[in-house]
């Protein structure tokens, strides 16, 4: 009997051991069968330009974590690829699978890309996000970028950008005549119509240009990114924004690269892009508040100013004229601008009732 028992135990041990070995072998086979995908992303930003570079890096981190390591994204800052304003071309041509930049940089290639960043006197960031994700804005963006062979998604908002640092107070339209100012893009064209001598200078040379009176004023972003540039040390008048009320960055994806991914990884990519974009918005909001607190404590002579009414009226008139000119050149651009205007008219009433009056009544 004892011999039979020992034999039975031995058989059970052998059988169990075999099963365990098979399980281990099957697990190993499954692990070997799991395919990983690696994408490359080029950004317009340098490696330390927070929070813009953070949006790209965070998205890559989220995607790898949620996919359990199946989707990896290598992020190259501008110092690596040396072409900060070549992102669309590199993604379109397949040199990179993805890019992180801003849509209005491609105005010279395609006018219709302009409105997907921000437009003067346009929507606030919450309004613009609602337009993208609830009112057809995203579909319009995909339609524009489809002809370039890429997908485009919102990539993080700076919110309202400030109107710029001025060495002298602006009290009238006459004060703008011949004023030398660094303000690029569509806003620069508006200011030029008002008599400003618009120039564009490399970021690394801006402080010196302002300090040496080569320029009288400049527009950058907002406290979070302005503080590191030091403009507040030499230009005491800080004007409120009008030209970029919701500057949205963008993620670009080469369409062929996207379609090579399994469906679940495509979904993970899109969802992590959306998460990283909103994360950048709230991160920058917090950084702006902290940077402004530090600025006013260390440089109490800084004065927050708003452009006089006559200047604001003239800016709006110039904006209207320029939009009409560009719309005549590009029916596609006009379609997008009209769509934005219609939605802003609808959503702005609620913004005024809710946020605006809440703040006004609690000052």
UniProtKB/TrEMBL annotation:
Q: Could you tell me one molecular function GO term of this UniProt entry?
A: metal ion binding
- Xref: Gene3D superfamilies: Bacterial extracellular solute-binding protein, family 7, Periplasmic binding protein-like II
Q: Where does substrate bind?
A: 161, 182, 219, 244
Where is Na(+) bound in this sequence? Answer: 220
Annotated keywords = Metal-binding, Signal
Q: Which GO cellular component terms are attached? A: tripartite ATP-independent periplasmic transporter complex
Query: What's a Pfam family in this record?
Result: DctP
SUPFAM superfamilies per the record? Answer: Periplasmic binding protein-like II
Q: Which GO biological-process labels does this protein carry?
A: transmembrane transport
Task: State the superkingdom.
Answer: Bacteria
Q: What is this protein called?
A: ABC transporter substrate-binding protein
